[in-house]
Amino acid sequence: MAILEILHYPNNLLRQKGLDVEIFDESLEIIIKNMLETMYSAKGIGLAAIQVNIIKNIIVIDISEKRNEPVVLINPVITRKEEKIEFEEGCLSVPGFYEKVNRFNVIEYEAKDLQGKKYNAKAEGLFAVCIQHEIDHLNGRLFVDYLSMVKRESIAKKIQKMDSEGIKVQRKKIPYSI
Ligand code: GNR
Ligand code: NI
To answer: How far apart are CA 175 and CA 169, in angstroms?
Structure first.
């Protein structure tokens, strides 16, 4: 298995839109295993394939405190959103920055499982917010896109500086919410 490199904002590769998974084979399982290992190693609660430069509609999530409840969503689509909330978010592609974003507290979604079987489900709270954040990634969108241009530019400059100096921000704990 492998820990993959996570792309950082403002890298334009993060703006690519994912392609739906059509073939459910062993290579898909390998991608998912590597994404899970990368997410756990980076102390994230979610990871979208595009963050590791895989242009496919695949999301892995684990919001459990014990880090032993992985969830995989393939080709996910939100079919219903309810109850606006404000949520403080972070992103492994925007290391070190946390900002409030408008989201929905309850969603219904459709996705495929590892066997390619379609299912419908409902999510609430942190899990629902995480799915919205990850589906944004699959559409080439980042949480900084909801901020003012001034804030976004400032964050972009700071991350570019850190990356150019090779400074790595390693999370010490998991930011479920701040
Ligand atoms: O680790 C993460 N924490 C988080 C906190 C609040 C809302 C969303 C997230 S997702 C983020 C991991 C990540 O960047 N996923 O794309
Ligand atoms: Ni993210």
So the answer is: 13
pLDDT at 177: 59
Distance between CA atoms of 93 and 51, rounded to whole angstroms? 7
* pTM for the model: 0.97
- Residue-level length of the chain: 178
Q: Which atom of ligand 1 is nearest to the CA of 101?
A: 7
φ, ψ for residue 106, nearest 5 deg: -130, 130
pLDDT in tens, 17-38: 999 999 999 999 999 999 999 9
The CA dihedral of 89, 68, 60, 144, to the nearest 10 degrees, is 10
Where do the domains of the chain lie, and which CATH numbers do they carry?
12-164 (3.90.45.10)
Ligand 1 in contact with 91 (CB < 6 A)? yes
Q: Known catalytic residue: 99?
A: no
